[in-house]
Amino acid sequence: MPSTTDGWSRSLDGSHHVFTAHEFEIPDNDDRQYRLIRLPNQLEALLIHDANTDKASAALDVHVGNLSDPDHLEGLAHFCEHLLFMGTSKYPKENDYFQYCSEHTGHSNAYTDSEHTNFYFEVGADYLQGALDRFAQFFISPLFSESCTERELKAVDSEHKKNLQTDGWRLHELEKSLTNPNHPYSKFGTGNLHTLKYNPEKLGVNIRDELLRFHDTYYSSNIMKLCVLGKESLDELAEWVLDKFQHVPNKNIQPPIFEGHPLTEKELMKQVYVMPVKDYRCLDLTFPFPYQQPYFRIQPGHYLSHLIGHEGAGSILCYLKQKGWANYLSSGPVEGGINFDFFKVSIDLTEDGLAHYEDVVATVFQYIHMLKRTGVQENIFREVQSLARLSFKFRENFSPSQYTSLLVEQMHQNYPREWVISASSLIREYDAGLIQDHLAWLDENAFRLTLTTRNPPKGIELTKREQWYETEYEEMPMQQSIIDAIRMVSPIEELHYPGINEFIPTIFETNRRQIDTKQKKPELIKDTPTIRLWHKKDDTFWVPRTNMWILLRNPSADVSPANSVKTKLYTELLVDSLNVYSYDAEVAGLLYYVDEHSGGILLDIGGYNQKLPLLLRKVLMQMRNFTVEPSRFKLIKEQLIRSYKNFALEPPYQLALFYLSHITHERLWTAEEKLLELESITSQDIQDYYPTLLSDLFIEVLVHGNAFANEAIGMTDMIESILKPRALSPSQLSQPRTLNLPEGSRYVFTSKLMDESNVNSAIEYFIQICEATDIPSRARLSLVAQIMQEPCFDQLRTKEQLGYLVFSGIRKQIANMGLRFIIQSEKDTIYLENRIEEFLDSLKTIIENLSEKEYQAQVNSLIADKLEKDKNLGQEGIRYWSEIQYGTYDFGQVDEDVVELRTISKASLLEFFNTYVHYSSPIVRKISTHIQSQKQPVNIKPKINIESLYVCLNSQGVTKYNLSDLETTVQSCESGAPTEDVLRKLLKDETKANENEIEMLISKLVSILKIDSTGSSGTLVSVTPPTGNGQINPSVATTNRDHTQLPAGNTEIDDFTLRSLKARMN
């Protein structure tokens, strides 16, 4: 294999080049094989052979993003990403790719950012070749069909609208809009109907032509990177990649490069006041910063972030907390695009901190001054370098699609090819001068200040609105008082460098050895009246980490809203008190988490096992000997009040999920119930409460990872010796209860959104089916969920465009489980409920029409999915803990389900569906939660749909239509065009009828469809969805359904009904 000077060699058959200069830099436990090849069209591909994988994946990253959008078509790169999924010349069926992935235990997605468009998928390991062939066609011959183009415009618009009331999106877009307007960073990257439809139409621009032009310009193989992971040999993977991707056109273009920084002198030294949706207070300092990728060997931004964002003794945050001015702080480089980055310091302020925000700014700069004055500290750099090396050395696997998607973006960067896997995970060189140069960019004369708060300082009026999110703000020159505060502040003695980190591990022994028969479940090694210890020594991943889950059961912890709030306050105060101490542990890869849990308190702790007992002892001692500081209590209580109040401003779908859980769980209290109690709780109440909470306990523990049984017992002995709990009585040991719906019940809970500006509504539609321990029903439920997943998305999301967020699957509720649908949409929730039930009608037909081969393929796909191996230590541990925390201990349920699945016939599944799933069954148990937008009228009469239009046309002898023709017609109606005009265009384009005949047909159609003067239809006629060839199936009977009314038999949940349901908890 002759080599070249750049490290590449021609393959033996001469078909491509292979990188052979060096071995790849990989984590210690990574036993996969890698090969980097370059195709004749200059597409570079990283191949990964994983002999043990049960999932395969590929990702392709195009080095172009929304910075390259034309000025008059903002969002075009994102829109192009959407359209590539909608069919290709070789695979024209628009859902072919999604269907293939779904039917083979897979999924797919993509994202567009400033300079990248990243596509990825994951499928069962046996089905990589078929997925890869479909995937490659995205970049060779996408269709960009007219009907899909029109429909996906709505998907992009819906995606944008789901973010409209999210503060993170709002602030990001505002900050972009206030940068240099001549720099592409200032553009609106998501896009919506205005930028991609209405504005182009006004300019006479054809959006499909522009899509084709954009794809033809930028989708060039020489600026693409591909990564493929499979069980096949590297030679076979290379053969597949060459065969499928060598025909991607190479236009020999350069990745777009954007000169200059978006923050010029004109945009700096400005302060911006922003009105948020949720009630929070945040101070952001933003600096222009050099593009970091060229400095990956030293990573100066990492060093600065470590110090400025530190939370231990001597840090900015520690000082601000002592002053009562801040709750949280984060800092670090923020990626901008090719050739520019930012450095950002973000501080969550207290109410007093807001009043002293100028002093907070001065404190940050005082710390920066200290860093400049004292110079770069090599010992701290070496510590950061060492921790990065440890993190990479013992990095565990994550999902194949996450991995391939990450790698293809890294491949675009200017790393030596042998470092494309390690990339910026490692810090390789020390250069004090370069770090000092970067520190100079944190300049008190060149930054922007953004203050986000519902209570701007006195005299500040927010008179401006950002264009796309309508965020209220005000921008003005930096006030002289802030400049003076920065320059005049004296050195603050409390600010200093962090000390030596005692949590950095030095022992990494895992006793790795060959295991012939691996342990499939944790073992119960201690069982007393006060503690139950489960243990599993890792025999798969061999990393020097241990994870512990410790559940302190005491039913009084959440027996009432008041106790639930007290438990929450206690855990929040505990974490707050430990922050200065525990931050070093976090930096060293040792994390802990304490929070209220159903029926108690959960302590989750994990990381490098050598120092885990040290942190565990400190946390337990603090739990037992905790003293509430009134000043910290006041701040934590205020945070919690805001958190409960802000809950009503969560996305509608999140509220729909919560309220269904609230109704069906015994002790899941609402934010409103908690707020009523929180106002009157004092610091003394918490001081008196927590000792009683910890006095009587049953402790459930799982120790999992690099710890032997004696070590696990030693740590649980520590727990008992420190907490000294008394045993609970048997009656107190019962698990939290969940609602068992009565047979034949159909309940609806409705709530209005508090946020008047949110245009979206949401629904969760839940069909309760069986006990979680009912193996035959559980297996059939999972099979129905598997079969329906892709058709549901295709029908409700892709074709009907109900909303960007459409999901179907299984909901497990401790003791029982069932099927659920989740939709967030601009449409009314009653309409959504009807559409879900119409889909259930079609699902029955889909199952009936499955051939035996198709049915068995679905069964095999589900079995493969259930048998999928855990990817890392944490994933395996969480699987075990989910069985332990709710007392099910069914560690073998996967094997039980697989055995049952192999016995299920299609007839048996249909019987199950008709009896327990379909709404027409007399024993079906259904509950739905409707979260309604205040902007959405309750009963909007829907316009005609595809199915009703087909039936009506067919009844008049007009039959020469494909689905796409009808879709275009319906979409035009939904866009506001007069229905009669749209029908007239359809008939003129597709029939040979004269004008009189056309008008007569329109008259009949209007009458049949019951279209009123506004173009709405009072009754929708529905039929089964199209058959596989894209045609409507005319052989099925039609059914009448009024989409403006709840389906018959539903009962609205009022307070009395809710109390009655809660009484049924089992």
UniProtKB/TrEMBL annotation:
Residues 208-385 form the Peptidase M16 C-terminal domain. Residues 783-881 form the Coenzyme PQQ synthesis protein F-like C-terminal lobe domain. Belongs to the peptidase M16 family. The keyword Transmembrane helix does not apply. Keywords: Hydrolase, Metal-binding, Metalloprotease, Protease, Zinc. GO terms for molecular function: metal ion binding; metalloendopeptidase activity. Residues 392-675 form the Peptidase M16 middle/third domain. GO terms for cellular component: cytosol; mitochondrion. This is Uncharacterized protein. The lineage of its organism: Eukaryota, Fungi, Fungi incertae sedis, Mucoromycota, Mucoromycotina. GO terms for biological process: peptide catabolic process; proteolysis involved in protein catabolic process. Residues 46-181 form the Peptidase M16 N-terminal domain. InterPro entries: Metalloenz_LuxS/M16, Pept_M16_N, Pept_M16_Zn_BS, Peptidase_M16, Peptidase_M16_C, Peptidase_M16_M, PqqF-like_C_4. The keyword Zinc applies. PROSITE patterns: INSULINASE.
